[in-house]
Amino acid sequence: MDENTIPALVEKLCRSFSNGKSSETSKEYEAKYKLALQLLSSQQLSLHNHETEFSIVQNIKKLLGSKERYQDARKFDELYTRLTSSSILKNRKAVLELMYYLAQTPASAATEPVIRHSFTLPSLVTFTSDTTTIVKTPKNTEVPYCPLASATSQKKTAAQSTLYGHSDVSNHILLREILYAFQGIQGQVFQWDATHENLQLKSTVKLPKALRQMVLSLVELGWLFHKVQKYCESPKTESTCGLAARAFGAALQEELSEYYRLLAVLQSQMEVHTIRSGDTVGVETQGLTFQRLLVWTKEPKARMKLLAALVEACHGQRGGALASVIHSFVLQGNATLKTVVLKILVQVCRPLYEMLMLWTFEGELRDPYGEFFIGVNLAVDPGSLWNDKYYERSAMVPNFFTQEQGHQVATTGKSICFLREICLDKSPIPGMNQIRRTAEERSESLLSLDWESIEEAYSTASQYLLQVLLDRYHIKLHLCALRQYLLLGQGDFVNHLMKLVEPELDKPATTRMSRLLASILDKCIRCTNSQYDDADVLKRLDVRISEPSQGDSGWDVFSLDYKVDGPLGTILTPEVKTRYETLFYALWRSKRMEWIMSKLRHQQLTEGRQLRGLLEVQGVLHQAQLLLSEMIHFAQEMSHYLSFEVVACAWEQLSIALRSSKTMDQLLTAHEHFLQTVTSRALLDEESKDIRDHLRGIHEAMLQFSQIQERLFSSAILEVEKRQGKSKSTIETFLPSIKAKLCAISASYQNFVQTFLFMLSSHSDPNLQGLGVRLDFNECYQRKDSRLSMSLTYFHRRMTTLSVPSLLH
């Protein structure tokens, strides 16, 4: 036996107290040795760990006072005072607990069972001086010799008669073999079954049925042990299983160490002398028996079943998923087993706890084996840090975390990373260090995490990040610039830009015009109130020319661009900028229609005076004026709707949301809601695709009417000049074709408008329904189309009735 093991040291200590060779001295040694092992295997002292040193001292004084040992109480008080002033003894509380326990223990308690340890240790009745050390051998190795069996029992190979009937194996040998089976070792009685991976009785061994059932029930503990030991001894590297799985293996190994202590005590019981009557019949009255072994291993067997179930359930799991599986075993009624699971879970969660604290308070993700519920994508662009670089892995979120708690942890660390990497703010967040100290004081593991401190850290980091974005990087100023320029909210700038770029945008899109348009933009800024805007805003404003398609003009490829970098790039991602570009095209086209209609009205008022004497064209001019009035009304109402009811109202909601935002996610959500609202109300979503196509048809009709009026006035003015010069009249060559085209455009336009109004009236958005009412304010189109005279309430009820059967089919 190793001289440094606990049993060897205890034996040496007990022998030093019992010098001599007499039988009385040997009995005294055995009693002391037994009592020492009882104390070492007891949990009695741990039942009052919550008591303080002061309360233990007071209890000792009360105990001495209750026995009227007042002089001993005063002496104890003096000795304790001297002990507190000395620095030799480090663990005073444990020593006082032991003294108090020994003082309360009666003298007869030496032969009584003690409080069990984690794997229950049996009551030790009699001990010898030699304690057998557990020696683990491979499961396929025969064990021909056992030092625990006496020489007499080893020589007896004849049939034995037991309390259970006739047996081929003596009870002593069978008990010895069972203890080996508890360690997964085969021997004279049991053999290893590789198919089922368990120990079975050899076919040559004959046992009574009752004894056989009891033995097989006992040997099941060895099968469970082998299952757990196999998992512990399987190769585990951090790269393949992770830190949490290695911690799980270490926790299981600690449980097996307690199991080995149980086996050591059981083997020591094999040395107990038995009272025999005759050479063949052995009736055990003391020491280890089948009944006692069955009782003593009941609780360890239940514990080993739990460990085996954990091993089976946790196979292949790692990180947070492993913690979730183990935590599911906490929900059970057995308090002892629940304590075992919690102890293992605390050890498994230790690496995850350190990862969480490091991520939450320093923004550092130290997870080399992918076990944490926060993942990182190193291949993304730095500008997409907030949206794409860090993400939550739902499979790794422990099931004792709520979804909101996991989101708070993820957002807190992401906010710190954003400050460090994007905002280049490496200064400590005010108050974060104090929150971290509080969290570490209140929580020791992932199970006892102080969520109040985590929520406070989440709030502090989020508000500090938002403050930096608003004050240092002026996020609201740039969002306002987007509204003013990309969403055409700056009226004087838009009108002047439309006037300056018109000659260039009328050209084909294949013409190189980027530099010229950039200079026009710069001139437009200097000539309008835009010159007073922030210099950083004007520096970011630029012209963008899209890739042209066949037949496109400059109007189809021109748009304004807003350059972004740093934190602004997190809000204006490439996808968001594409959506702004789409909105710009829709608003720019609407503004262009309004601009063209205004020019045509100006042409009718100025050049029409020259045609008063040309009576042949008066009817056509009157028809053109009526159609132009309809188009002007439509263009102005659409432009007013998009500018004020869509963009302005949505911007007001965004402004309110920005003022109430407390986190980066809330800011991004408010901006996303702003874009979705503008997109849907501007007829740019999927639901409005058909309406958008009809609106484009209306715009095409306006452009065609513009060309017809230009030809009409140019031809009519030329005819007036010819008549003034007494030249031959050519009015019959152009007037009929223009009149026919004008009638066709008028019919096509009104048809598009009527269908457009009908679609607006059936749209789910009440704002678009109101737009339809304003476009037909005098019910002009309603008189021409009976569908528009239908009540909206009746229409929606009818549409709902018709849509339900179609959905069912």
TrEMBL record:
Q: What is its main location?
A: cytoplasm
Pinpoint the Gamma tubulin complex component protein N-terminal domain residues. 175-471
Is ATP-binding a UniProt keyword of this protein? no
The protein's UniProt keywords, in alphabetical order, are:
Cytoplasm, Cytoskeleton, Microtubule
Q: Which residues form a coiled coil?
A: none
Q: Which domain of life is it from?
A: Eukaryota
Its localization reads: Cytoplasm, Cytoskeleton
Any Pfam family from its record, for instance, is GCP_N_terminal
- The Gamma tubulin complex component C-terminal domain covers 478-781
- InterPro entries listed in its UniProt record: GCP, GCP_C, GCP_C_sf, GCP_N
Entry keyword annotation includes Cytoplasm: yes
Q: Which PANTHER family match?
A: GAMMA TUBULIN COMPLEX PROTEIN (PTHR19302), GAMMA-TUBULIN COMPLEX COMPONENT 3 (PTHR19302:SF14)
The family classification in the record reads: Belongs to the TUBGCP family.
The protein here is known as: Gamma-tubulin complex component
